[in-house]
Amino acid sequence: MPSKGTNRVSRAQPKPHSDGPMKTRHHMVAPVLSALIPGSGQIYNRQWIKGLMMLLLSGFAISYFASTLRTAVWGMITLGDVPSRLEEVNGRSVNVPGDHSINLMIQSLIVLFLFVLYLIVYISVIKDAYRTGRKRDSGLPPATFRQTLTFIHDFKFAQAMLVLPGAGILFLTILPIVFMVLLAFTNYSSPHHIPPGNLVDWVGLDTFAQLFRLSSWSGTFLGVLGWTVLWAVVATATTFISGLAVALVLSQKEIRLKGIWRTLIIIPYAIPQMISLLAMKMMFNGKFGPINQYLSHFGLGQLPWLTDPFWAKFTVIIVNIWVGMPLSFLLISSVLSTISPDLYEAARVEGAGRWQQARIITFPFIMFAIAPILIIQLAGNFNNFNVIYLLTNGGPSNPEYQFAGHTDLLITWLYKLTLNNNIYNIASAIGIILFIIIAGFSIWNYRQTRSFKDEEMTQ
User: Fold this and answer.
1) Contacts 24+ apart (CB under 8 A), 89-97
2) One domain, residues 238 and 381
3) pLDDT in tens, 147-203
4) How far is residue 339 CA from its own chain's centroid?
5) Residue 384, Cα to own-chain centre: how many angstroms?
6) Which of 137, 220, 246, 259 sits at 20 to 30 Å (Cα–Cα) from 154?
């Protein structure tokens, strides 16, 4: 027979919350209900506000997708059946609108993206009903709407704040990228496949085959690709070396008026790049530019800075040094200012000269900090549209190339193909190849840097 003290202790213990005889099956019933009718599982779990919100959202989504999803799937598969056409009506030509293949693709992508988002919400609702059902099975009461908001504020605030930026990235960045990739698998190009008068069709890998098999396209692609790689490497190396040289010179104690020198060096970076490049284009003009007029006094004649293939490439590299060197100078100067003078003093005590100090102390510090930025600059120079377009517009022209000149990069050639010649499928294929080259090259180089290896060792 139990004692009174034992009974008193047992009466003092809190009893678990009970929801009736089905408490051991809530985790099975609630998710099934939410799977059948999203939100009904939350209502079953007595989360009335959350359930009603899910019901309203699901009702709106079902009504929206019932009228758009089938058309979206049809549009993505067919890209339209009937193009726009002119018909004679009462002796007048009337435009009869048809299917616009590109608009169909964009609208279908938007609907499909929204459908994927709804599927994510649908699965989350089922998981939420399951988790709440498990809590009820264990005797715990379901969270109220106020408690849910408090939990989000205290523990999921960052994720909640990322919803709007995430939606912007999805529809303003990822969706256009997917659209651009899909264009590479169509025949969307002038003159025979430009909507609305013509339809666009899926052609699979024919665009890539055309780019590599046809001599006219493959010759242009390989030639422009070779110059793009050479330009990116030389442009990155020259701006880095020139910035390093100037930073090392100004770091010497013997240099006076360092503030004035630094201000003069930064001015080209502070001026808008477009203004600097247009001014440089006028200065290097072969007929009336001030540089040729000045050189003519020394009997050097009229150099074809922007009209000869060799001199045009030389000119864009020199101008890029003028435009890009200040940034490298600033970055390297900031690294030099963080190196402790005690390291140089210890090296001098050991008998190290200036070159040995630079090789053992200065260069390793600079490369450790600057190597990832150099990789970013290299990737940026692959896509350095401004310098090439504003200085030479890709010229001088090359009769052996398709819509490209001697100084065109892949990015400027892509621009000409799309905006000037309406050859979108080839341009899209070039964009995909350019992305693969830059991404692969950047990732491989970054993994070789000391900063990446040190980060791996610390993890």
Assistant:
1) 97/196
2) yes
3) 999 988 899 898 889 999 999 999 999 999 999 999 999 999 988 889 988 999 999
4) 34
5) 15
6) 137
Q: How many domains does the chain have?
A: 2
176 and 226, same domain (yes or no) = no
Contacts of 304 (CB under 8 A, 6+ apart): 286, 311, 312
For residues 256 and 162, state if they share a domain.
no
Angle formed at CA 421 by CA 417 and CA 424, multiple of 5 degrees? 55
Question: Whose CA is closest to 84, among 199, 236, 227, 163?
Answer: 199
pTM for this prediction: 0.81
Residue 457 scores a pLDDT above 90: no
CB 306 within 8 A of CB 285: yes
| 340's tokens | 């402790």
Instruction: Please compute Rg for the chain using Cα positions.
Output: 33
Least confident of 3-12, 26-35, 141-150, 337-346: 3-12
CA distance 213 to 206: 10
Residues 437, 222, 411, 432: is their CA dihedral positive or negative?
A: negative
In percent, the amount of the chain with pLDDT more than 90 equals 58
**Residue 397 lies in domain:** 211-458
State the distance between the two ends of the chain, measured CA to CA, in whole angstroms: 61
How far is residue 128's CA from residue 145's CA, in Å, rounded to a whole number?
A: 13
